[in-house]
Amino acid sequence: MPLPRRIAQVLREHREEFPPVDVTLPWLKPDGPLVTKRLLFSLPGGGAVRRTDFNTRVWKFALVQAGIIPEPRPGERHQSAREHGMHALRHFYASVLLDSGENIKALSTYLGHGDPGFTLRVYTHLMPSSHERTLRAVDDVYKAADPTVDGPQTAQEG
C-alpha cells in the first residue's frame, strides 16, 4: 500500500527512538516452527505486542479518554463492539480512500483482499454518491452541444 510522506516520517522518528526488535515465536500454531521477525512495535521488555492486549489496554483506553465509549465499571471489561476495536481503523482507512475517489480494485489490494468483489460488498455503503457527478457529466456533454447565442440563429432574428 502507498505510504504517505507524513506517516513515513512519523515511523522514521519512532524507529530512532525505539529501534526495531527481533522476536522469535512459534508460527501458525503454539507448537509450530519458530520464526524470527523484526518488529517495529514491541513491548518495553522486547516481546511482541498482542493485538488483544493493545486493544484492551491502549486502544479502548484512548476511546474512553476521547469520550467515544464509556469507561467500564470497576471489575468489568470495556464494551465489546466491533466498531470500537482495532478493526475500525481499517474501516476508517477504507472510508477515507473511497471518499477521495480511490477505486475498489486498488483498495482491495491495499486491504489484502483477494477479490475486489468482496471489498465492494463490504465497503459499498462508504462509497460517495455519484448522483451529482453523473448529472454534471451528462450536463457537460449537452452543454458543449448547445448553440451559442451569437450563432447563425441570432443573425437571422435581426
- Runs in which pLDDT lies below 50 for 5 or more consecutive residues are none
Count helical runs: 7
What portion of residues belong to β-strands?
5-15%
Mean pLDDT: 85
Q: What is the structural class?
A: mainly alpha
Largest sheet: 2 strands, antiparallel
Which H/E pattern describes the elements?
HEEHHHHHH
Structure characterization notes:
- Strands 1-2 form a two-stranded antiparallel ribbon.
- Helix 4 crosses helix 5.
- It has helices at residues 5-17, 51-65, 87-99, 104-111, 116-123, 131-145, 152-157, and strands at residues 21-26, 34-39.
- The protein is built from seven helices and two strands, in the order αββαααααα.
- The chain has a domain at 86-145.
- A hairpin with a 7-residue loop joins strand 1 (21-26) and strand 2 (34-39).
- With 158 residues, the chain is mainly α.
- The protein starts with a helix and ends with a helix.
Topology summary:
Blueprint: H1 5-17, E1 21-26, E2 34-39, H2 51-65, H3 87-99, H4 104-111, H5 116-123, H6 131-145, H7 152-157
Antiparallel strand pairs: 1-2
List keywords for this structure.
single chain; 158 residues; mainly alpha; two-stranded antiparallel sheet; 8% strand; elongated
Can you describe this structure in just a few lines?
This protein has 158 residues and is mainly alpha-helical. The chain has helices at residues 5-17, 51-65, 87-99, 104-111, 116-123, 131-145, 152-157; strands spanning 21-26, 34-39. It has a domain at 86-145.
